[in-house]
Records
---
Amino acid sequence: MTEYEKDWFEKDYYAILGVTDKAPSKEIKKKYRKLARELHPDANPGDAKAEERFKEVSAAYDVIGDEKKRSRYDEVRKMGPIGGGFGGGFGGGAQANTGNFNVGMHDIGDLLGGLFNRGGRGPNRQRSATGQRGADSEAQLTLNFNDAVNGLETVLTLTGEAVCSVCGGTGAEPGSLPSKCESCDGSGVHDENQGLFSFSRPCQSCGGRGSVITAPCATCASSGVQVRDRDVKVRIPAGVKSGQKLRLKGRGAPGRFGGGPGDLFVHIKVEPHSLFGRSGRDLTLEMPITFAEAALGADIEVPTLNGEVVKMRVPQGTESGKTFRLKGRGGSGDLLVTVAVVVPAELSAEQREAVEAFAQASTVSPRAHFGVQY
Ligand SMILES: [Zn+2]
Ligand SMILES: [Zn+2]
């Protein structure tokens, strides 16, 4: 493979011209003419960006506008990017990074990626042939009821493999950086041309990494990985339940030799609440009421999770076991209040008199429809 063809991995000429790789040559020609007209320096005097685009478009058309070159280009690209190199691996595993931790590792990855990553292209950069993905980490997190309902941000301290604190994951002594492998020019592979095809084999000098470490980090033996405590900031979403397992992408152990990091799995345990339970997104509460309140109706006070007390109307003639929904009072959902009529275990003389009077006045048995007398 020639230097010129190596460029082909990095440049998607179809994308540059805004056509698919299945586009017929007529369409490519049409698209090129349109773009060339729009971007032509004569039409955009002094516009450096347009001029750059014009050059890009011309270079793309030079290859895929020519049937012979196009089929060779397709063939080369089908073989895939080779030798992602040192930086490619770091970038390959990077996920959205919201916290402040382990950012350093990706920063270094990006830095080195810019220097050494010849084989990769764009966001699809491949891991180096030797890169090892980091292990997944596991953590237990016990939450109190409120935090589980409302969500929280917390810091987990994990013991295990972490980015080396001395070299920051580069594997090289502080003050030095891995340097580009001269033997393979940083690509991690050597190409051998055999007629129409070219084959690549991993570079012996750098083990396929594309970079060499002349001053290995003593702390991590140039692996970039060290066993130690590390703090991981995690955001627990509102509404997690006991037994749930949260997966935090890229927060596991760091990879080695350019491999991406593993994931972190957080096992959730939620402590029960003395008053409230949960039903889906809603909270539940069992509310004791007296027979008199159920029979006559009453305005009662209901506690909520945030400490506020809200009023609830129990209509007259409410059956024990009836559930009332208080909208928006149960964390991110509603509060489901189920009333339970409480029967006093003991009665005062006054209460006994009142209940006996009630019994005297009750002429219809609630079991009358069973066809029984008592
Ligand atoms: Zn180190
Ligand atoms: Zn090499």
---
Amino acid sequence: MPFHHVCSACGTTYDAGSLINLCRACNAPLLVQYDLAPAPELREEIVTRAPNMWRYREVLPAGEDEAVTLGEGITPLLRSQRFPNVWIKDESKNPTRSFKSRGMAAAVTMARKLGAKRLAAPTAGNAGAALSAYGARAGLPVFVAMPRDTPQSIVDECRGYGAEVELVAGVITDAGKRVQQYLAENGGFDLSTLKEPYRVEGKKIMGYELLEDLGRLPDVILYPTGGGTGLIGMWKAFDEMQRLGWIGSERPRMFSVQSSGCAPIVRAFDQNLHSAPEWESPHTEAWGLRVPRAIGDRLMLRALRDSHGGAIAVDDARIEDAASELRKTEGIDAGPEGGAALLALHELRAKNAFDDEATVVLFNTGGNKYR
Ligand SMILES: Cc1ncc(COP(=O)(O)O)c(C=O)c1O
């Protein structure tokens, strides 16, 4: 499908066809825009194709024939055994056991196609693991920088895929600075969250799959949020689905779930801000949520507000127990980020944020990988 890039802040457009990071005019994230026209029949056709995310090739920047793929996407949407009307999108079933594989599959595909010779990104953990695996698959060298206290299992996973791993004092924003320095010295392409346009494209397919799974969109989505690519991607997907004539103007209420130890989006949402100032001294058991400042903050906050959703910080001390509860009662390979989403479900229900009849999708974004 023909596409171009549009700056999410100033609207400057850029042609497809060469490697690109942020908007050259204002440094904001670029989003992919396709020339979409109503195609109701496409919805039926797509579900007959092979069960991986590339079945949505009309709304992806590349086709399966050129994809760097490990079979990502089309994960199960499981009915909760305990809570009526609650479904769990189990992203631990992706390659490298997290939803990060979707974004990296799309980003590495495009990086290779457009001529990148070396790939680099900072990571809170799972993005680095996914980049390492897809880089190996693409035959391209990978450099990842991550906080020194990242669980050893993740460091081993990245190295196991042959990546060069550097441990950095501080958090992901510090790792980001190290990646900039590395790229300046060695060259290569920067795949940091939202600093290239294609990770969002892979992640957005989660939104398409919800329609495929349920036959309609859910009323509520609970999404554990760090950099926000999943949230931003799904919000973009709903817009595309409307342009394709697959849905009307209805949208799920999107709730961002963060930890009490690192909740910049929740604070900004509560204070009615349009961007999210950096969270000081971030700490959380849910490593994927330890993102003190996100370049996609404006896009996230806009999606949460436009969807009449919200943002909730759950008690960090209870996250691991909640993940364990998910594992023991649902049989799901739940990581702490999924545990955070379960806690959010309990708390939002207690506050009557939505009624019991509402169809709720809770994202288990990754498996129990940190030990
Ligand atoms: C398991 C898991 N869940 C959620 C997140 C946050 O993802 P996003 O950047 O889409 O907000 C991460 C990011 O590292 C993660 O690893």
